[in-house]
Amino acid sequence: xxxxxxxRTTYRxxxxxxxxxxxxxxxxxxxxxxxxxxxxxxxxxxxxPDDYRERxxxxxxxxxxxxIRSAHRVLSVTATTDVDVYGAHAMPLLxxxxxxxxxxxxxxxxxxxxxxxxQYLLDSPLVAASADLAEYARPSFTPGRxxxxxxxxxxxxxxxxxxxxxxxxxxxxxxxxxxxxxRGVCQDFAHLAIGCLRSVGLAGRYVSGYLETTPQAGxxxxxGADVSHAWASLYVPPIxxxxxxxxxxxxxxxxxVTTAWGRDYGDVPPLKGVVFTEAREHExxxxxxxxxxxxx
Length: 296
What we know:
CATH architecture of the largest domain: Roll
Number of strands: 14
CATH class of the largest domain: Alpha Beta
CATH topology of the largest domain: C8orf32 fold
Distance between the termini: 10 Å
Number of helices: 6
Order of helices and strands: EEEEEHHHHEHEHEEEEEEE
Oligomer: single chain
């Protein structure tokens, strides 16, 4: 699939902002093995920034930084990327390898991928392993169960047991609060899956990106109807990372565009920063569009 992903964020303030400093994770990244290839990216910021630069963060994500030192009441950041996404390869090993074998291979591996993956066994600010998470995970991770089967079952249970409710949580909500409240949004359900994986000794990673939405039968596609999305990944040596979307109860395929990954949401927020102003209130508008392009 080839997509054009447009992510526009607009802040409107009720007073003058003297300067803004921002950092964003909204630029899709290339994936290993050519599973995702970015063709071109355009970033438009209004007002025009006095400084703009891009870099790679600790996790290899594309990060953009900007400074605006002129007075403004509205700040708009629009990133547009054309990206090719290829379907996942067959993973027959997952049909046989148990989750216990996956756990031991992750701990014992000495190759660069395994060493890099082991950081995702550890607690992070928003996702810490716990006895309660291990207890929730236990029905999925029964003795000897294949890793893929266990992962799919966990995603299905999260999908069935938790209510999707925007506004029920905040970006700082920790995974234990999500488990207790039984409601949240995609980032919360990704955190929950990752917390369960870490609580049984597996490496879980947070992934941010986009999901192409399909219009209802007989309807037309609505521009701007898509949203930022998040899902979880399990490290399975020697295959690598296997991605699952508990919000929609499915494995990640070529309808997903990957932007960034880290230990949890806190590593890869779409946009964060500091503004200097005496304004008391602001409005935030986020518009995302994932448009499929014709091949070639």
